[in-house]
Amino acid sequence: MRLLVTAGPTREAIDPVRFLTNRSSGKMGYAIAEAAVDRGHEVVLVSGPVNLATPEGLTDGAAVESARDMFEAVRDRIDGCDAAIFCAAVADYRPVKFQEEKIKKTGDSLTLELEKTEDILGSARPIFGFEGVLVGFAAETNNLEEFAWAKLEKKGCDLLVANDVSRRDIGFDSDRNEVRLFFANGRRQSLPAASKSALGAQLVEIVETLVAERGRNDGMME
Ligand code: PMT
Questions:
Q1: 53: exposed, middle or buried (C-beta count within 10 Å: 0-12, 13-18, 19+)?
Q2: Looking at the domain assignment, is residue 104 inside a domain?
């Protein structure tokens, strides 16, 4: 199969030396991409800025900085993919105005006006016209199950992978993770704490099954 994976954080520039970002290291997304290459798949990796070696054997890839860059890189590469896994921690907001020159420390406080970024996962079905298996992630600190079901439905996903990012031992920037899976058919599954490499391999296997099931269903419709 051909699989697109997004990974890492995005950076939303405030001025030439400052940006808004988050704690994503890219480890989870890279582990998925590496597992998929190891299992013989064509892998397209769209990555935000990370300190990780580019996995060997990628079919295509793009190194991006901002949510807008990531949106464009995904838009230009998703066509022809059998599945897409959106593991990146994309900034939800960016500064409305990029200050061309470094902001000076003049007042006692500074207010930044922010605007929504492009919703890349939410664009997959309506804007990119993606018909393959769509997998979103959900990084939650509370009400994980409720938020996961809501995201699954709103974004048109086949599978939502939810992790609890209030914990320090898993999630952001850890070598390990623990995830709960929510499927579009209402099924749930938990993958217990393990290395991101091991979880990446499990997730790729699950996505292989979803792609095969979709192929069978499409065949029955013809
Ligand atoms: O990178 P690591 O340090 O290994 O950490 C892994 C991780 C915690 C980042 C990863 O497991 C994870 O949870 N990734 C999703 C992070 C996130 O941004 O979740 P969210 O609940 O805010 O977003 C929901 C989904 O929408 C995600 O699939 C996200 O990629 C996508 N999204 C979000 C905002 C946006 N503007 N566009 C998007 O496509």
A1: exposed
A2: no
CATH of the domain at 207: 3.40.50.10300
Residue 139: strand pairing partners: 163
> Which residue's CA is minimally distant from atom 5 of ligand 1?
172
pTM for this prediction: 0.97
Is residue 55 assigned to a domain? Answer: yes
Q: Is residue 160 part of a domain?
A: yes
Question: Range of 160's domain?
Answer: 2-96+112-221
CA angle 181, 195, 46 (to 5 degrees): 70
Q: Look at the chain and report how many structural domains it folds into.
A: 1
Residue 209 lies in a domain: yes
For ligand 1, say whether the CB of 27 is within 6 Å of any of its atoms.
yes
Instruction: Tell whether ligand 1 has an atom less than 6 A from the beta carbon of residue 161.
Output: no
What residues act catalytically? 22
Task: In whole angstroms, give the CA distance from residue 177 to residue 172.
Answer: 9
Q: Is the C-beta atom of 66 inside 6 A of ligand 1?
A: no
> Distance, CA 216 to ligand 1 centroid (Å)?
30
Encode pLDDT of 94-132 as tens digits. 999 999 999 999 999 999 999 999 999 999 999 999 999
